[in-house]
């Protein structure tokens, strides 16, 4: 989709998100008379043409009050990022460069952008939900470390002292795992026997991994390493996953070291958007949730509630904060 699609009414919002599927959807929440919104509009339109694989939507908070309330919008412009109707990130303010950088973070090395994506309908690549600070890899090479296998390029993760690796992937919210994807440019060094554990209360060592019963044990073959190949997991056992630990026990050719070019998981967040919750919000809208007009906001002194982007913003701001460019429009 090229160009920005304006949402004309509350009932139109959820179908547009659903139509985006696993592709990234960037939703701009705007308001008539908001100077930062007007300033960023040309850049937002430009970005929609520059990133045709991304869905760009625009919501006026006065026209679609229920949608704004359901998404807890308290300032404009606010940009929310969705995949499979699940909110994965947000950005606030009128800094076009900062907004584009955020879009790049979510689109680089993203298989969900491909028209011929191998991801089954209803599922998504869970890489945006990986909490890198909570991840760990034991026996990684100093030169070819763990971070390399989270990026789909020519770099790779390689084991150090022997063929074994112990990898823990943490997620920033509970997820359901449907399958796993592993890529290795050298099949002889690709993982063969993999023990999969979930939600371990503490870090696991190699001895623990050897003797502990796994949630699932996989014996991988050449078929699993095809570009469009997915390694199925026992879905019923992976319904509320906060972390997953992979014990790479051996590789295909009995080589001294193991190599992984790319590793990711396919599934869904546990807390997906619920249409019934959205409808209940619509029924509970308070008439003063949003100002009736931009003119009414213009003469209102707004209290700073630490939602500005910059740490040096003034303690009180009238509408637009000159420091961070956020239009504080909904806090009275």
From TrEMBL:
<dbReference type="Pfam" id="PF00085">
    <property type="entry name" value="Thioredoxin"/>
</dbReference>
<dbReference type="InterPro" id="IPR010400">
    <property type="entry name" value="PITH_dom"/>
</dbReference>
<dbReference type="Pfam" id="PF06201">
    <property type="entry name" value="PITH"/>
</dbReference>
<feature type="domain" description="PITH">
    <location>
        <begin position="115"/>
        <end position="285"/>
    </location>
</feature>
<dbReference type="InterPro" id="IPR037047">
    <property type="entry name" value="PITH_dom_sf"/>
</dbReference>
<dbReference type="InterPro" id="IPR008979">
    <property type="entry name" value="Galactose-bd-like_sf"/>
</dbReference>
<dbReference type="InterPro" id="IPR036249">
    <property type="entry name" value="Thioredoxin-like_sf"/>
</dbReference>
<keyword id="KW-1015">Disulfide bond</keyword>
<feature type="domain" description="Thioredoxin">
    <location>
        <begin position="4"/>
        <end position="108"/>
    </location>
</feature>
<dbReference type="GO" id="GO:0005737">
    <property type="term" value="C:cytoplasm"/>
</dbReference>
<keyword id="KW-0676">Redox-active center</keyword>
<protein>
    <submittedName>
        <fullName>Thioredoxin-like 1</fullName>
    </submittedName>
</protein>
<dbReference type="InterPro" id="IPR013766">
    <property type="entry name" value="Thioredoxin_domain"/>
</dbReference>
């Amino acid at each position: 989709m090229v160009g920005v699609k304006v949402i004309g009414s509350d009932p139109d919002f959820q179908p547009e998100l659903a139509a985006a599927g696993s592709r990234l959807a960037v939703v701009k929440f705007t308001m008539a008379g908001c100077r930062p919104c007007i300033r960023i509009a040309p850049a937002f339109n430009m970005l929609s043409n520059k990133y045709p694989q991304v869905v760009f939507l625009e919501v006026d908070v006065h026209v679609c009050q229920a949608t704004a309330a359901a998404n807890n919008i308290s300032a404009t412009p606010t940009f929310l990022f969705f995949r499979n109707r699940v909110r994965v990130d947000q950005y606030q303010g009128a800094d076009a460069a900062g907004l584009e950088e955020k879009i790049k973070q979510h689109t680089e090395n993203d298989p969900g952008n491909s028209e011929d994506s191998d991801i089954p309908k209803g599922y998504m690549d869970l890489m945006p939900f990986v909490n890198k600070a909570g991840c760990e890899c034991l026996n990684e090479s100093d030169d070819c470390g763990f971070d390399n296998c989270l990026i789909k390029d020519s770099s790779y993760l390689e084991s150090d002292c022997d063929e074994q690796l112990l990898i823990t992937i943490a997620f920033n919210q509970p997820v359901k795992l449907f399958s796993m994807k592993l890529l290795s440019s050298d099949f002889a060094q690709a993982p063969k026997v993999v023990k999969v554990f979930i939600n371990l209360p503490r870090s696991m060592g190699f001895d623990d991994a050897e003797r502990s019963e796994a949630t699932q044990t996989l014996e991988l073959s050449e078929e699993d390493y095809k570009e469009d190949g997915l390694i199925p997991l026992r879905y019923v056992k992976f319904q509320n996953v906060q972390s997953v630990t992979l014990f790479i026990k051996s590789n295909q050719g009995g080589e001294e070291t193991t190599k992984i070019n790319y590793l990711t998981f396919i599934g869904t967040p546990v807390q997906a958007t619920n249409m019934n919750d959205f409808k209940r919000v619509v029924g509970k809208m308070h008439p003063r949730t949003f100002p009736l007009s931009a003119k009414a906001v213009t003469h209102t002194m707004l209290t700073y509630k630490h939602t500005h982007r910059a740490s040096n913003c003034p303690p009180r701001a009238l509408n637009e904060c000159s420091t961070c460019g956020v239009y504080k429009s909904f806090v009275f």
